[in-house]
């Protein structure tokens, strides 16, 4: 069992940056693949980025490649999402999630979820 808490969201101008943080309690992050997902009003939740529990491989959806960076710190039981060059279409609630078992980027496969943090990008 793990509890996840996101922070760092806010209101920024297009082209700006934010760094999201996810803090965990319970089992360590090393036991899980960690991902960031987002959900905009009227849209389904979608994959943004993930980092594998072994090897540290990272994955991104095409629309954020080169702009977003996911990283983890096992000693702090934390995962981060650095978001640069933000666009209006990045506006959404961002969720931290954890998954056991094989890696994938499927929303419904993730076992644990935070409450989300709002990111609003104005244009």
Report on this structure.
The chain is mainly beta. Helix content is 0%, strand content 51%. The chain has no helices and eleven strands. The protein has strands at residues 2-7, 10-13, 18-26, 33-39, 46-51, 58-60, 68-73, 78-83, 92-99, 112-113, 117-122. The strands form two sheets. Strands 2, 4, 5, 6, 9, 10 and 11 form a seven-stranded mixed beta sheet that branches. The radius of gyration is 13 Å and the shape is globular.
Give a summary of the structure in a few sentences:
Helix content is 0%, strand content 51%. It contains no helices and 11 strands. Strands 2, 4, 5, 6, 9, 10 and 11 form a 7-stranded mixed β-sheet that branches. The chain has a 4-stranded antiparallel β-sheet with strand order 1-3-8-7, with no helix packed on it.
Strand content: over 45%
- Quickly give the structural class: mainly beta
Count of discrete alpha- or pi-helical segments spanning 4 or more residues: 0
Give a count of the beta strands, DSSP E runs of length 2 or more.
11
Radius of gyration (Å): 13 Å
Residue-averaged pLDDT? 94
Choose one word for the global shape.
globular
Taking the sheet with the most strands, its summary is:
7 strands, mixed
Question: SSE layout and pairings?
Answer:
Blueprint: E1 2-7, E2 10-13, E3 18-26, E4 33-39, E5 46-51, E6 58-60, E7 68-73, E8 78-83, E9 92-99, E10 112-113, E11 117-122
Parallel strand pairs: 2-11
Antiparallel strand pairs: 1-3, 3-8, 4-5, 4-9, 5-6, 7-8, 9-10, 9-11
